[in-house]
Amino acid sequence: MSTRWPTLIEDGNGVLILDQTRLPHEAVMLRLDSLEDAANAICVMQVRGAPLIGATAAYGVALGLATDASDARLGQVIDTLAATRPTAVNLHWALARMRRVLERSELAIRREAAWKEARAVATEDKAANAAIGRHGLALLQAAHRGDRPINVMTHCNAGRLATVEHGTAIAPIYAAHAAGIAVHVWVSETRPRNQGLLTAWELREAGVPHTLIADNAAGLLMMQGKVDLVIVGADRIAANGDTANKVGTYLKALAARAHGVPFYVAAPLSTIDFACPSGAGIPIEERAAQEFGAAVADFGTAVANPAFDVTPAALISGIISERGVAAAGALGQWQA
């Protein structure tokens, strides 16, 4: 797996991120020096993917306390970051964690404590995703038939670009590739933001065979028997296993069920919202019409642009976390 372009690195005063709005055309590292920089990076999707959003938010708290670490400022910083994206629960999980730790810290050392806890969030994300890769590898090995490649379909970007390292849905693919197992990935474009192009970019960087497809080709490929399993990421998983992910995921789950293709969700435990009973309680972010392109936005036609949809637990073969693989309806075993 190539790490020539890390998604996030820091030096105790600022954070460097890979600006994902510039990919796949050019790779550019962007420095975040303030709360406003971090909030904007999350809001405009310079960083994407629930785990990476969470880590960026944690560092955003540290940046926001640079000159004022008071309780009032801490509350303002967390409120600012919490308002950036509504659906990805890792954002709110990271902010709650930072608040809990920092409210117990003395003011004199609060800034130092913020950087220390943000580093812990990032380090734990790397470890969790590596474990997801190991657990998911067993599923790919079980799906391997003869000497032909395992054909895995994914959606959006749940690779290393969506995390601090390794990825979630793509982590098992990297593990299989590293183990010398032949694997091929069907990569959906993922309109309208085309995040699938980011998956294609990082798979090319890593030397993993892949093919880019239009979103609506997924059902046909499953019908033709060209898909062995589907693995997607998640932005929020409800307590009953209903899963919010990039819009278009639900349609893939329906097609997978129709054609007997196993459908897995890969995400760290921080993505499970045990306070949310079901998918009906997951807020769905509505994004701007401009994402369809300026011509569409100026045409005068109403545009609906939900960023996510919800896949019912009944359509999910299993959820892969750092703890292993569990049935979507049996997540209570992982509740702290």
List the SSEs and their pairings.
Layout: E1 8-10, E2 15-18, E3 29-32, H1 35-43, H2 50-64, H3 71-82, H4 89-103, H5 110-143, E4 150-154, H6 171-178, E5 183-188, H7 196-206, E6 210-213, H8 218-223, E7 229-232, E8 236-238, E9 243-246, H9 249-258, E10 263-266, E11 272-273, H10 294-297, E12 308-311, E13 318-321, E14 324-326
Parallel strand pairs: 4-5, 4-7, 5-6, 7-10, 8-11, 10-13
Antiparallel strand pairs: 1-2, 2-3, 8-9, 9-12, 13-14
Brief rundown of the structure:
This protein has 336 residues and is α/β, with parallel strands linked by helices. The protein contains 10 helices and 14 strands. The radius of gyration is 19 Å and the shape is globular.
Descriptive key words:
336 residues, alpha/beta, Four Helix Bundle (Hemerythrin (Met), subunit A), four-stranded mixed sheet, 10 helices, 37% helix, 16% strand
